[in-house]
Amino acid sequence: MKMVCGKFYFLLFVIFCLSLNNVEGKLSSNYYASTCPNALDIVKEGVKDAIRKEARVGASILRLHFHDCFVNGCDGSILLDDTPNFKSEKTAAPNNNSARGFEVVDNIKAQLEKACPGVVSCADILAIIARDAVVRYGGPTWKVRLGRRDSLTANRSAANAFIPQPSFDVSNLTSSFAAVGLSFKDMVVLSGGHTVGLARCATFRTHIHNDTDINTAFANYLKKKCPLTGNTNVLEPLDYQTKYTFDVKYYQNLLVKKGLLHSDQTLYNTDKKSESHVKRYAMDQCKFFKDFAKSMIRMGNIKPLTRSNGEIRRNCRKPN
Ligand code: HEM
Ligand SMILES: *[C@@H]1O[C@H](CO)[C@@H](O)[C@H](O)[C@H]1NC(C)=O
Ligand SMILES: *[C@@H]1O[C@H](CO)[C@@H](O)[C@H](O)[C@H]1NC(C)=O
Ligand SMILES: *[C@@H]1O[C@H](CO)[C@@H](O)[C@H](O)[C@H]1NC(C)=O
Ligand SMILES: *[C@@H]1O[C@H](CO)[C@@H](O)[C@H](O)[C@H]1NC(C)=O
């Protein structure tokens, strides 16, 4: 009898562990409903104010979430400054003099700390502001999954290794997304994030001077702004038609060889599978919006820290 009870309790223990395992890695959209009921409203207002002050900053914070998630998961690691123990991801090649919008996160975090101290993670703030920015620009909305915790550390070499580069072609982009568990379709549809925001001359110089898959008049116009040398930080819209509207013009530009980055135009160049997605999105905004929302949720699910892993940072720039 004792034996049976022992087995019974062991079985209960196993079931308990399995259920914990289930919870692990699972985020939920109502995570802060009781612990910080105003969290979503506070963030939404913060994003609205920030974009009202500077139209571009919504694009910048959308990109922050992407650059966070691709480096050891969506854990707020991109927000950490240098410490004696590690080099920040902010100074990795894809981010240095490029990643921006950190003050928006700081402001929103400060308000959340006032409303509900120690509750809302920096990683979750990034996921919410990315969605709210897309909505402000006229894009789709989705229910943001929440419950991520914040990393204790950052890894600059991982940022260099995992964030895709503008020189990448379809196969490089595919492997880069596959490395974080995202699909080919995720890659094509999330690239549509380039319907908003700006890029520096340094990132498109080679494409406009050396690539052949670019409209001649478009290339000539850009070469004046971004000559063979110099002008490294001169900015041009990723979507030359509507730089702060979330729409399908990014894909329409690719059809006529007016993508700004090599990594954009490569999606409509020679790869048949990629081309069919691009064509579809270019003419079907509903489809693009639906798929973009789905893929943003998938990106937001990359390796979150949950349960007792990580912490809720009080200041997004440093571990507690
Ligand atoms: C597919 C691989 C990708 C590559 C190679 C890439 C590369 C780049 C580059 C080079 C820039 C310009 C940076 C600068 O000049 O400082 C940029 C900007 C941007 N990227 Fe990406 N990106 C990719 C995917 C994504 C994804 C998945 C998103 C979001 C869903 C995204 C959102 C943005 C936004 C919004 C900007 C403009 C930021 C601003 O104006 O501050 N990108 N990207
Ligand atoms: C980042 O950019 C600054 C200013 O251009 C430069 O001085 C610094 O060396 C760069 N950091 C890294 C790690 O490349
Ligand atoms: C940082 O990332 C690099 C590249 O992915 C990896 O080799 C290294 O082990 C990581 N460092 C730490 C401390 O995790
Ligand atoms: C891109 O992919 C090609 C093969 O398709 C490979 O030879 C090359 O090393 C890759 N480049 C980068 C930067 O990963
Ligand atoms: C264009 O290609 C040539 C030859 O490969 C190279 O020397 C040059 O640096 C490239 N120019 C740009 C702007 O990337």
Structure description:
The structure is a single chain. By secondary structure, the chain is mainly alpha-helical. It has helices spanning 2-23, 39-53, 57-69, 102-115, 122-136, 156-162, 170-178, 184-190, 201-210, 216-225, 249-255, 262-265, 272-283, 285-300, and strands at 198-200, 235-237. It folds into 2 domains: 6-164, Orthogonal Bundle (Peroxidase, domain 1); 187-286, Peroxidase, domain 2 (Orthogonal Bundle). The longest helix has 22 residues, at 2-23. The protein is globular. It binds protoporphyrin IX containing FE and 2-acetamido-2-deoxy-beta-D-glucopyranose (4 copies). One 2-acetamido-2-deoxy-beta-D-glucopyranose (NAG) binds at residues 171-172.
Helices and strands in order, then pairings?
Elements: H1 2-23, H2 39-53, H3 57-69, H4 102-115, H5 122-136, H6 156-162, H7 170-178, H8 184-190, E1 198-200, H9 201-210, H10 216-225, E2 235-237, H11 249-255, H12 262-265, H13 272-283, H14 285-300
Antiparallel strand pairs: 1-2
Helix pairs in contact: 2-4, 2-5, 3-5, 8-13, 8-14, 9-10, 11-13, 13-14
The protein binds protoporphyrin IX containing FE and 2-acetamido-2-deoxy-beta-D-glucopyranose (4 copies).
